[in-house]
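Dear colleague,

Thank you for sharing your sequence with our group. We've completed the structure prediction you requested, and as agreed, I am returning the results in plain text so they can be pasted directly into your records. Please verify that the sequence below matches your submission; if there's any discrepancy, let me know and we will rerun it promptly.
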Amino acid sequence: MSTVDKPFDFIDKFRQGAAWTRSDGTLTEEAINQLENILLTSTQMYIRTGGSTDTILEVTNSETHETSTGGAEYHDLADDNEQIEDLIATQEPIDYDAPDYTPVIEWETVDATTNTTLTDHDFAEGTLNAELKLDSKAGPGNQIQTCNGDGSRIRVNGDGIELRYAGKRVSCIDIILEGTSIHWYRFKNHWRGG
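Please find the predicted structure tokens below.
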């Protein structure tokens, strides 16, 4: 698999004669990787810019049943909300006068240039094609922030736990665009990125 420094550098390579297809007409592995790179970059740009400016998409639907999310994903979100409500219901009341009361949870910054396992409340900036593994032992309510610090391909790996991000369920996701940041929240059986 080839490595590309910037999402669209490969265009010059193909203009200079690199092959898009094999003799049987199928795409080469490099072409597939580059097209995936374009799709990931486009998706991340779409999310970071707030989506489309298409007025048709801005029209709201007043029907009482859900129409904008697939049925399975809608039920997954409903399950996530139930888990959050259960966590809130089981919390002890906060005694603001207690000597051990801490109003803010500190985030730990992590500069990751190699394969790094992240734990609860780590804010990791990956560079140099680093792989960031989300802690597989994390419990519900744990949070991790991942960010691309240099525009290289930063891989976020669920370390055996399913990642749910942008309507997909995957074991890992690549962050390609510099500055793109994903906040991960741990549920009972998966990490949800937003």
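Summary note from our side: Helices lie at 10-15, 29-48, 55-58, 71-89.

Kind regards,
the structure core
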